[in-house]
Design a protein that fits this description.
This protein has 213 residues and is of the alpha+beta class. The chain contains 6 helices and 12 strands.
Length: 213
């Protein structure tokens, strides 16, 4: 029931100070943000994509046949619609997650930040173009497969390769842009991407921009 005074409605008034937007800064810390970054290879990059169709065809090939003995090197690389060689964005994300093992979870002094970063960082770039269509050389070395030594051939890109990625952080209250920059730098120095890392696939960050959305 509305209070009245002399038969007329009485205007209600708030008790206490005026309502402000004082919580804005705190709330802003929980808003997801996006980062566009570029990396440059400090070491050669080796590809060894698991192509389900190529692996299945090789498994079904006749024993001793050429298909069984040779590597389908083209099936080891990723390409976009423009036929350019690419790096999956998930490669970079997994390197960042691995680098988080060397950092402490801010929620617990007994735990690394690996699980936290795994939940927080999302790659918005399915395939990051390297801007080239052909690999530089074919890397050959001995590997052990089912207790047998075999020569594995992998397409390789010389150091100096570049790629640009778009990442999103869903937990900015825990993973700040500064922390993410440090994680990407650690990932390039300690972890690397693609095959035979960290001997190959190491990189450095050349650009890191937090986008204004």
């Amino acid at each position: 029931m509305t209070a009245t005074m002399n038969g007329k409605p009485k205007n209600a008034s708030a008790i206490g100070p005026d309502v402000t937007n004082g919580a804005k800064q705190t709330l802003d810390h929980s808003i997801p943000y996006r980062v566009e970054l570029s990396i440059c290879g400090d070491a050669d990059l080796l590809f060894h994509r698991w192509n389900c169709e190529a692996v299945e065809a090789k498994a079904k090939a006749a024993k001793g046949s050429a298909a069984k003995k040779t590597d389908d090197v083209e099936s080891y690389v990723y390409r976009n619609n423009d036929n350019e060689l690419c790096i999956p964005g998930e490669y970079l994300r997994q390197a960042i997650i691995a680098a988080a093992k060397y950092r402490q979870d801010p929620r617990s002094p007994r735990k690394s930040a690996m699980d936290l970063v795994k939940a927080a960082v999302v790659s918005l770039t399915p395939l990051a173009s390297l801007g080239i269509e052909d690999w530089d050389y074919e890397h050959r070395c001995r590997v052990q497969v089912q207790r047998s030594g075999v020569t594995r051939v992998r397409p390789a890109i010389n150091a100096g390769w570049t790629a640009t990625f778009l990442l999103m952080v869903n937990l900015p209250e825990y993973v700040s842009s500064g922390m993410l920059h440090g994680l990407v730098s650690d990932a390039g120095r300690l972890i690397g991407i693609a095959d035979f890392r960290p001997t190959y696939g190491r990189f450095r960050v050349t650009r890191f921009d937090v986008l204004d959305d």
